[in-house]
Structures
1.
Amino acid sequence: MNWDKKDLLGIKGLSREDIILILDTAESFKEVSQREIKKVPTLRGKTIITLFYEPSTRTRTSFEIAAKRMSADTINISASTSSYVKGETLKDTAKNLESMMPDVIIIRHSMPGAPHMLARIMDASVINGGDGAHEHPTQALLDLFTMREKKGKIDGLNITIIGDIAHSRVARSNIFALKHFETKITCSGPPTMLPPYLEDLGVKVEYNIEKAVKNADVIMMLRIQKERGGISYIPSIKEYSTLYGLKASHLEKAKKDVIIMHPGPMNRGVEITDEVADGPCSVILDQVENGVAVRMATLFLLAGGDG
Amino acid sequence: MNWDKKDLLGIKGLSREDIILILDTAESFKEVSQREIKKVPTLRGKTIITLFYEPSTRTRTSFEIAAKRMSADTINISASTSSYVKGETLKDTAKNLESMMPDVIIIRHSMPGAPHMLARIMDASVINGGDGAHEHPTQALLDLFTMREKKGKIDGLNITIIGDIAHSRVARSNIFALKHFETKITCSGPPTMLPPYLEDLGVKVEYNIEKAVKNADVIMMLRIQKERGGISYIPSIKEYSTLYGLKASHLEKAKKDVIIMHPGPMNRGVEITDEVADGPCSVILDQVENGVAVRMATLFLLAGGDG
Amino acid sequence: MNWDKKDLLGIKGLSREDIILILDTAESFKEVSQREIKKVPTLRGKTIITLFYEPSTRTRTSFEIAAKRMSADTINISASTSSYVKGETLKDTAKNLESMMPDVIIIRHSMPGAPHMLARIMDASVINGGDGAHEHPTQALLDLFTMREKKGKIDGLNITIIGDIAHSRVARSNIFALKHFETKITCSGPPTMLPPYLEDLGVKVEYNIEKAVKNADVIMMLRIQKERGGISYIPSIKEYSTLYGLKASHLEKAKKDVIIMHPGPMNRGVEITDEVADGPCSVILDQVENGVAVRMATLFLLAGGDG
C-alpha cells in the first residue's frame, strides 16, 4: 500500500487503507520525539508553510515541531501579519506562495473549503489544518491513533461523542474516519447541537448523556466553540454544563477501561470536570503527543515520498 | 567584477555593473528552488534578521525562504511584538540587535531613510525591504531579472509604468535601475500621481493610457497604495479603474510579446482586470519566483563573500 | 562543580557556585558569536519553545539567537496568537506543550510565579524570562557577567542601582545575585519606589542620587516601567528625570573607571541622558552582547548535559 494523494484535505476522500497507512507511519515516527536527539533528516531541503487565518497554539506548534524534527524549513504566516490586510484574495496569496516553491502548505481558515480551493490551484501539497466547521483531518487521525494505541484496535469500539456536533469539524472528521471501521458511534448533546444528518450516517443520536455513555469504550468530549457562535445554541453555559458536562459519575456507566478524549483547548468546568480531565481514564495529553507523530507521518507521506 | 558594498539600501548608489552582478548571481541560485532538496550550505552559521514595521507576506516570506534555503538562521521581528511598544527608538533597537552579532538585517519601515540610518550605525549588512515611498531595491532587481529572463535583455526595451508613481517605492527603484540601461520609460497615471521630477529623470509622461502602452515591451502596473493615502489623490476607485486600470484591449496597442508585471498584492478590478492578470502575457507569478532567487543572490553577496 | 538543576526560575535558589558556573560557561560560548560561522552542534535535535505573554524584542530574540547558534529547533509562541484567547488555562497550555516533548520552555508572564508553576508540572526545563515584578534571572546573570568582564571580578565592587527598585524584576534578581559576592549595594530612587525590605537584605538606601553614586564601580539604571504602572509612583516624568535621571555630572562623583549599565529598553532623557548612555563609561551594548552568551550557557547547562 502506497500513498498516492497530493493533499490531505479531509477524511472524506480517504479509504480505510489510507487511514491505516497514516497511523502505521505515525507509529514509526512516534519514537523520534522520545529520543535525546529528536531529529531525522527525512525532509531536509523541504519548505513547509503554515498559513493560519485563525489563532492556534496547539495545531500550528504541533505541525511546526513535526516539520522541524524532520529537518524541514518552516515558515509561519498568520493572518494578522499577512498581506490580506491589504485586500489580497486568498487565491492570490496562495498563487504567490506557490511561486516560492513550497512543498507543503498547512492552512487553517474559517471558510469551509478554503483548503480544497488552494489544493486545486497549487502544485504544493495542501493540508487542511481546520476549515470552519467542516473538517480537521489530522485531529481525527491523531484521535484514531490514540484509540488504536490504547485499545489495540479500532474495529469493535463503542465511541460516544458529546457536545456541539453540528459546529465541530473535529466531530465530523472523526465520524467520517470511524465509519471506515466497525465502530458503534453515539452522539449526544442538546438537540440544537445535533445535526439532522447524523442518523443518515449511521450514527446513533441519544440526547440523554447517561444513556449515551453506557458501555462506551471511548468518550470524546467537544469544546463549546464560543468563537464560532456555539454559545447561542444553548440557554446558558451553566445549564449546558449540568446536562452535558462529563463528570466522574458518568464513567461508571461506561466500560471499565473507558478512555476520555478531548481535542482541546478545554473549557474546564463546562464540558468536562477537572476530576475527569485529570483522572486515570483521560488520554487527552496522549492525543497531543500523538498529534506530533501523526503530523510527521502526514508530512512524510505528502512531501517525503518523492525525495 | 566583485561586490564591495556592505549594504543594499537602494538602487541609487548601484552601478550598471552592480545590477548585472546581482542578476547573474540570482540566475545561478534560481535552480536551487527547483530542486528536490532545496538547500545549499552557503550561509550556514549566519544570522539574518527581518525587522518589519509594516505588514508583509510576500517580501518577508521571500527573504525568509531565501535565507533558509541557504542554511542561514533567521529571526523575525514584527513591529507589533517588538520593544518599540515600550518607546524605544529605532536607533536603540538597531544598536541592540547589532550587539547580538547578526550578519544581515532586512528592514521595512514607513519612514524613508530608515534603512540608511541603520546602515550608518551597524556593522551588519542592511537590506532595504521597503522604506516609505522611497525605495524597494530587491523588488526592482527582481523586476529587471524577470524582464531580462523573458526578453533576453534589458537594453532597448520600451517600459511603461502605470499608476501612482509619486507614492510608489517600487516605481522609483525601477526607474533608477532602468536608467542604467538603454530603455525608454513611459509613466502614466492621473496628474496627481505623477511627480514633477519624472521628466528630469528622462522619463516620458503620458496621461493617456492608450498612448502610454503603445509599442511597450513591458507594462508594469502599480497598486493603489491605500495604506499610504494613495486613495485621496483620485476622485474615486471606480474612475481610476476606468481610466487607468489595465484591460485586455490595451494589450493590442503594445508589442505582440508584451509582458505584464505587478509587484503585488493586486487590487483585482482596480488597477488590473482578471483577464490581464491571469492571461498569457502576465509574468506576475514569475516575478514572485524570481524574488526568491534575487534575494538569495543579495544575501549571498552581502553575507557570503567573506565566509 | 556540575549543574544539577532542572530549571532556571530565579536567582533565588542559586548558589555562588551555580552563578560562577554559568558565567564561566558563558565565557566559553561568547566567542561563538564572534566567529565567521556562528554555529555549534551542541543542541542539535533539541526543541526550545519561547512562550511570551508580554511583548519583548530583546529577550526573545536573544534566546532565539542563542538557541539557533547551538543548532536547536526553536518555536515561538506569543500571547496574541496563542490558544489562551480561547480561554485555556496557563496550566493546560503548559501540559499540552509538554506533551510535544520540548527540552526547554522559556516563559515570560506578567504573573509572578508563573514559571515556577510550569516547572512543577513539566519534565522540560523551564527558564524564567521575566515574571511580573518578581525575577529575571538571565538578565542578572548577564549583568554580573558584564561586571566581571569589565572589572575582572565581582567581589569588592560598589554597585549603585537607581530607579524603580520596587517594581523591577531586574533589580531584585541582581540584588539576589550580588549578595553572593562581597559587594556593597546602594539603591536610590524616590521613596515610593524603594521597597521596605531593602535594608533587611543588607542593601543601603540612599535617596540622594549624588550621594548614592559616590565611589561607585557600577551604576545600574532602571527604566521607568510605564507598562507596569510605575508612572503612578512619581509626580511627573519631568520631576523624576530631574531628581533621578543619570547625567554626566554624576559620573564625576563615582570611581574614575565606573561602568554604566541599563537593562533596556532605555527611556532616553528620562532615567538616563544621551551623553551618559552613549558615553565611554556605558557598557549597555556589551550587556546585550553578553546576553546571548549567558543564554547559550543557560540552555547548554539545562539541555545539553544529558545529550
2.
Amino acid sequence: MAHIYDTKNKRLMIDTTTALELVLLHGSVNTNVLEVDLKDGLDYVLAQDVISEIDMPPFRQSAMDGYALHMGDDATYTLVGEVKAGDNNNPTLQKGKAVRIFTGAPVPITANTVVMQEKVTVEGTKITIEEPLKENTNIRPQGEQIKLGGVAINKGTTIKGVHIGFLASLGVTKITVCKKPSIAIIVTGNELKSAGTKLSYGEIYESNGAMLTAVLNELGYQNTSVITIKDDYGKTKKVLNDTIGKHDLVIVTGGVSVGDYDFVGKAFDEIGVEQVFYKVKQKPGKPLYFGKKEGASIFGLPGNPAAALSCFYIYVYPLLKKYEGAEHTSLPSISLPLLSDYSVKGTQAQFLKARIEAAGVTILGGQGSAMVRAFGDANALVCLPVNSTEIKKGQIVKTILLPFK
Amino acid sequence: MAHIYDTKNKRLMIDTTTALELVLLHGSVNTNVLEVDLKDGLDYVLAQDVISEIDMPPFRQSAMDGYALHMGDDATYTLVGEVKAGDNNNPTLQKGKAVRIFTGAPVPITANTVVMQEKVTVEGTKITIEEPLKENTNIRPQGEQIKLGGVAINKGTTIKGVHIGFLASLGVTKITVCKKPSIAIIVTGNELKSAGTKLSYGEIYESNGAMLTAVLNELGYQNTSVITIKDDYGKTKKVLNDTIGKHDLVIVTGGVSVGDYDFVGKAFDEIGVEQVFYKVKQKPGKPLYFGKKEGASIFGLPGNPAAALSCFYIYVYPLLKKYEGAEHTSLPSISLPLLSDYSVKGTQAQFLKARIEAAGVTILGGQGSAMVRAFGDANALVCLPVNSTEIKKGQIVKTILLPFK
C-alpha cells in the first residue's frame, strides 16, 4: 500500500463509496476512555452501555390528577385519603374505597385503577364515577420506561441533551465516554495572509484554518490547532513530520494538487505516510488524499474552501465518529424531490450545496470550489452519482443533512 | 389580556398555530448587541449586516494549474515567465505570449485566458495548446464571490462554522451580534430528588432541569440556571417573583396542570404575569402556559419530560431565535412519507417523536408524555393536525427536523 504516491498515476482514482469505505477501514480508532460528569457529557460518544440502577418510574405512578380506586361493584366510592406527588404513604384501600391522587404520585398498591377528576362527581367523602372502569387505567407501571439492570443508552451513542435528561432521571451522575481526538489543521500556501493585515496584490486571507476550527468546534471538537506553512518543500516536510506524531488526526488543506509547488503529497511520501488513496472521482474534491502513520489519520483536503468543507462532511466527519466509536458515522441522508431542474457539469460524482425546503430540496447557485458563500445558505448536500446529466424537477435525489442548531 | 387565568375555562384552549403566533408576537425581543471576535461568534445571531471591505477574490485568480495566455492567432505560445500563488508580479504579455501559472495565483492583467496544463505540450519555452481557446476560461473574476461594499452575511443570520470561514476570507476579525438571553429554569414538585441520593418511595430524580440545561447548552445558550421548588404556594410565588425580574426567559416545568397542588398558574396570576395563553389543543403539552412580565417571557411547560421537551422545540426554540432577531425562528420542516401505518390516539394536534430514514420517516414507540427515552432515538417530530385518525404508510406528513451535530 505504501509509497504509491504518483501524480501521473490516474489509475488510482477511486469512486466515492470506495473512498469512504477506505477511510472507515484505515482510519485510526480511539482506545482511551474517560469518566465525565453527566452534565459535561454533551457531544461525547458513550464508551460503554449505561445500565439503569433503578426502575423508571420507580413505583406505580399516577398519570393523571384524579382518584385511585380499589374497584368495587358500583359507581360510588368512599374517599379515605389523599396521595400527592412526593408523598411516601401507601394507604390500604378496601374494595369500594378511593383516594384523591395527583399526577406523578405513587398509586397505592391496593388500588387497581385511576380515574381522571373530570369523570368524577364529588359529594363530601363520596365520589361517583361517570364512566365505565378498566383496570390499570392512567397508571404508569413501575419500570415502564426501563427496569433496574436494563440498558438505558447503548455504547456508541453520541450524547445529546435529551440523553442527559433521561440519564438524570435514572440518577446517573457520571458516564464513561471515548476520548476525543487531538486535531491539527495545517494550511498551506504562499498567498495566505492573516486577518488584520492589508492584502498585497496576489494575496488572500487565510480562511480554511478558521473555518475548519469553527466547524469542528461546532461539532463538539475543541482540541484543535492551526499551523500555517508556506509552499516550501523542506519546511512542509518538517512541519508534517513534527505534527503527525503529536495528533490523532491531521488535516492539511491545499498543496495536494499536481502543480509544481504542491509539495504536500511528495512530503507525505517521503516522511513515511502510508497512502490509502489519492484522488476521488468527485466534484468538488478530486485531489482528496488520505493516509496514515503511527496511529494518526491524515487527510489532504483541497485548498479551495468550499471543496475542503464538502470533503470534511463526507469523509472527515465519519472518521471522527468512527474514531470515537460512534454507532452512526456518516451524516444522515434522505431521498427528496428536487424543486427545480439542474444541469450537471462534468461526469464525476457531485456533492452540491443545497437547501431543504418544506416540499423538497433546491440546489443552490455558486457551486464553484472556491465559493464558500453558498455553503452559508445550505443545510444539505445533494449527491449525484457519476455520469449524471440533466436532473429534472421532481426527480428524487440523495440528500445529506448538514448539522444544525 | 391579563388576569384570565382560570383552570375551569376551557374556551381559552387554542390551536398550535395560534399558540406559536402568540409566542412570536408577545415574546420579548433583545435590544442589546455586543462585539465579539469572529472566532468566538459561533451560534450568535448577527445584529447587523456584515459588509465586505474587499473584493473576493481580491484579484483575477487562476482556477487551475496551467498557462495564462494573451490569446494569439495560432496554437503556439512563447513562455515568458511564471506566476505562483502568492506572487505579486504582474508580467505584461504581448499577443502570443504565455506564463506558467498555478491555482490561486493572480492572472496577469494582459492575459485573457488560462488553459489547464493537461491540455498543453511543452517544448522548452514553446507551448502548444491542444484545444480551442475561449476567453476568460479558468479565471475567477475579481469580486466573483462578493464585491467591496457588498453584504457578506445578512443581519439575522445565526453564525455557523462556514460563516466564520467565509468572513475570515474577507479579513473580518470582529462581528456585532445580539446578546443571548439569560434563562432561568424552575422545576417544581415535592417528588423531585437530586441525583446522588437514594430515592424514597414516591420520589423520582429531578431531570427536567438537567435536560433543559443540556438542550439549551447544545444550542449555544450557556447563560442558564436551575432553581428547584417544592409544591408550596407561598414559596412558589416568592421564587417566581424573584426570578422573573432577573432573567429574559423563565421556563417553569410542572405545576401548571389543574391538580390541587399545581400552584404555578395561580402564582403567575397573583404576581402580575400577563397570561398570553394557557392550554393548547395538542398532545403532548396540553397545559402549556405562556405569559410575560416586565420584558421577560415566561413559559409554563408540562412536568412530564418528554412533553416538556416537545414544547421546548415547538415553542421555546422559536422564541429564543426571535429574541435574538434571527431570520428563521422555527426548526426546519419537510414533507416526508410515513414508513409504516400509525393509529392516532386522541383528537388533538400531535407532535410525535420520529426517526428520519433514507426513504421517509418512522414514528417511534414510547410516545407517552413521561417517556423521554424515545426522544433519544428521535431526530424529528412528526406533526399531525387535529382530528387525524389512521395514517397509512406512504402518506405524506409534516416532519420537523431536530437539531443535531
3.
Amino acid sequence: MEKEDFMRQAIALSEENVRQGGGPFGAVIVKDGEVVATGTNRVTASHDPTAHAEVSAIRAACQRLGTFDLSGCDIYTSCEPCPMCLGAIYWAHLDHIYYGNNKADAARIGFDDSFIYEELSLERDRRHKPMTELLPHEAKAAFRAWEEKADKQAY
Amino acid sequence: MEKEDFMRQAIALSEENVRQGGGPFGAVIVKDGEVVATGTNRVTASHDPTAHAEVSAIRAACQRLGTFDLSGCDIYTSCEPCPMCLGAIYWAHLDHIYYGNNKADAARIGFDDSFIYEELSLERDRRHKPMTELLPHEAKAAFRAWEEKADKQAY
C-alpha cells in the first residue's frame, strides 16, 4: 500500500465518524507497511475530551503492540494534530506525521486550536488559564523516591 | 478542605505510584470543594503513553460526571503539566491549575518536556518531527459533511 492509501483510510474514517455523530476526524497508525490501529474522534460519544482521533489511534496501537513506544510507526491523520495530540505523538515516539486538512481548515469549521497553541508558547504566568504553585517542597518527596528507586522502568 | 489538602492528596498519589512502579506523578480533580476523580501516571503499567496523571484524572472525572466538559472543576497536580496534559486541560475546560513540582524539577530527574514545548511553538516545517501534507482536497469532504450536518453535537 502507498502513503495515499493510508491517508484515504484515515479520511474514510473521518467521514464515517460524522455519519455516526462524531467529529470529522480519523487517524491510522502504520508500521512496516501495515495498519496496526485506527482511531476516530469520540469526545462526545465517550465523554472523553482526550479522545481525539490521534490519541485514540495511539492508545489502540499501543494495546495491539503491547508497548508504550511506537518508534518505527507513522501516523496518518485526516487533520493536522492539535497541541494535545502533537504532544501525545512526541511521547509515543511516532516517526512521521502525514495530515490532510490543516489547522486553518479546522478553524474555519469551528475547531480552532490556535488559542491553545498560543497559550502553550507563553510563559506560565502570562497564560489566560491560571496556574498556581502550591507546596513545591512537599512535592519533591516523590521525585527523590523516583531517583532513589533502583528497579524503576524509565520511559 | 483547603487547597493544600487537595495538593497533599495529589502528592500522596505520586509517592504511592512510585512504590507501585509508576512515574512520580499524581493528580486530583475537584468540584465544589470535593474530589471527583484522581489519576496517576500509568504509562508503563498500561502500555499507554497518554496515561499521564492529568489525562488519567480528566478521563476519570468525565466518566464520573458523565460529561466531556469539566468547567467548574480545578486540577491539583503534583507536577506542572506537559504540553499534552496542558492541551487536555484546555479541551476539558478546567478552571484552575495548581501544581507542586515545576517542569525544571521534572527535567532534573529525567522527565524533560521542554523539547516538546519548543517543538510546539515552532511553525510545522521547522519542527524536528517531520510533518507532510497529503491529499488535502480529499480530506475536505468530512469537513463539508460536518458543516452540513443539521443535528451535530459541537464541543
4.
Amino acid sequence: MNRAILLDKRPVGKPTLEDFKFIEEENPAPAEGQVLLKTLFVSVDPYLRGRMSSAKSYIPPFQLNEPIQSGIIAEVTESRNPDFKVGDFVSALLDWKEFQVSDGKDLVKVDGDAASLSSYLGILGMTGLTAYLGLTEIGKPKAGETLVVSGAAGAVGSVVGQIGKILGCKVIGIAGSDEKTRILTSKFGFDAAINYKTSPDLKTDIKNVAPDGVDIYFDNVGGVISDAVLANINQFARVPVCGAISLYNDTEIALGPRLQPILVRNSVLMQGFIMFNYATKFPQAIKQLTTWLNEGKLTYTETIVNGFDQIPQAFIDLFEGKNEGKMIVKI
Amino acid sequence: MNRAILLDKRPVGKPTLEDFKFIEEENPAPAEGQVLLKTLFVSVDPYLRGRMSSAKSYIPPFQLNEPIQSGIIAEVTESRNPDFKVGDFVSALLDWKEFQVSDGKDLVKVDGDAASLSSYLGILGMTGLTAYLGLTEIGKPKAGETLVVSGAAGAVGSVVGQIGKILGCKVIGIAGSDEKTRILTSKFGFDAAINYKTSPDLKTDIKNVAPDGVDIYFDNVGGVISDAVLANINQFARVPVCGAISLYNDTEIALGPRLQPILVRNSVLMQGFIMFNYATKFPQAIKQLTTWLNEGKLTYTETIVNGFDQIPQAFIDLFEGKNEGKMIVKI
C-alpha cells in the first residue's frame, strides 16, 4: 500500500499534528506516457503555512482531504514516457506521497553526480533562487553597503548573507540562539550576528554593529525584529520582504508601528516577492549559484529528518526554529 | 521694517500658532551680486511639519529662532546681479519673510505670461512634480488598471487622479467631505470617490467601486484609510507612499496592522519617495505637465489665503483638510 498525507483541518494558529491525516491507498500504476515516481527527499517550507489557510494568495490554497504538495526530489522507478528512464532523478512540486505518477510535464531532471540530490531542494532550488533573486532584484546590493538579514540561520537567510558577502556588503544576521549566531559568523562569514532572544535592546544592538545604518534589509520574519531593523534604516534603503514567519500563525492581524512615515522620511522601498516572479531569470541564477558553490564561495546547511511519517512534525518544527538551514525529510 | 516668521517651538502633536513667532527686522539691502526679492506667493505644505521636528529626515530640520522656509514665488525689486533684472519673477525655497536677498544661485525664473504665477508652486511646481513622478516612476500605471488615491482632493491627489485618467486607469479618490468627493468626480474626472468620514465600512466601499481590486495605491495619508485600501490590493500592486498626513502630528508611533504578510502574499511594492529623488526627470516632467495643461487635460484648484500674517494659520489648516487643492498664501 502507498501512503499519503492529506490536509485534514485548516490550522488555527500554530499547525499541529491533528491538522494532518495519513491515509493508505492502492499503489499507483503509470498509464501510457506516465512515469512512476518514488519520493526520496521532501522539502518543508514556511510558505506552506499560507497554502493551508483558505485565504486568497499567490498560489491556490490546499484543499481539505487532498494531499499537501511541496518541493520533492524523486526517482523514476517505472517509465512509460520516452523522456524519462528508470533511475532518473527529478525535482518538482509533488504530493506528499511515497509513490505517485506523473505525465512528466513539470518534472525537472537533476544530476545527482554534480551536486547532492537534496541540494536541489535547497541551495540549487527554491531556497537558493529565493535568496539570490530577492537580494539581487530587489535589494540591489552595492559593495560597501550594510545588509541585515533576519531569520539569518534559516535556509534562505544563510544564503542571502553569503551572497551579500560575495557582493562586497557588510552583513549582519539576526537569529534566535547563540549557537545559530556562532554559526553565522564562523561558518557563513557574516560580519556580525545578534541573538534577538537575548538582546535587551535589539534596535541599539543593531545600531552598534551597523553604525552607518542599514542599506538593505532582507526580511524573513516580520514583527518586532523588523521594527528594530527599520528603526536603523538608511535613506534609499531596499527591503525585500521574503517572509513573515513570526506572523504566519497569528489568528488575528498583528499590530505594529505604522511604516508609512519611515518609508516617506527615508525614501525606502519595501517589496514582497516570491521567486516565481522572476522565473525568466532562473537559468542565470542557477548558473551563478552553481559557480559560487563549485568555487567554494557558498556553503549550506541542511537539517535532514528521516521518515515519511515525520513530514508533518518537521514542518511544525520550522515555526520553533528547530532547523538549521534547509529543513528536508529523507524518505 | 521687514517682517519674518521664525520657528519658536517645535510643535508637539498638531502645530499651533504659539509655535511660530513674528519678528520685525531692518529692511535687507542687496550687496554686489545679490538681488532683493519681494515675496508674492508662499506655499504651505504638509511636509513642512516634518522639518519642524528635530528628527533626522531627508532635509535638515528647521532651527529654533530661525525663519521657516518653503516654496515661494518672488519678484526681483532690486538687482545687483547681471542674471536678474527688476520685474523678474522667480521660484525657490525661500524664507518666510516679506523681503529677502539672494545671490541668485538657487532661483528659477518663471514666466508669468505662460501660466499664473501661483501655478509654479502647484501644478507646475512641487505639487505637479510629486504627482507625476510618484505615479509614473513608482506606480507605473498601465491602461485598464485601477488606481486609488487617498487625500485625493488635496494638491497632489487631485493631480495624481487626473494623470491616472489621462493614462487610461480607472481612478477612485478618497477624501474627507461630500463636497470634496463631488468635485473629484465632477471637476477632476475621477470615476468614483468615497467620503471616508461617512463611510460605514471603507474596505467594503472600496471593494464595491473597485471590484477587480487595486493595482496602484497612491498613498498621501497613511493610517486606517490605507489599511482599507491595502485590504483590496492586487497581486503585483505598486504603492507610492507620498505622505502620511494622518500620522504627522502623532506624538507616539501609531500602531496599525503589520504590512509584511500583505506585501508577501501579493508581491506588493511600497516605496516612500520625495520628488527630489527624481531631479534628473524634472525638465521632462514639467514639459509633459505643461503640455497637458495647455491641452486642457489637466485642471487644478488652489485655496488662496491673503496676508503674510496668515501663513502659520494656513499651514495649520492643512491638517484640518480646510484646503481644496494647493494651499497658497498671497502676500
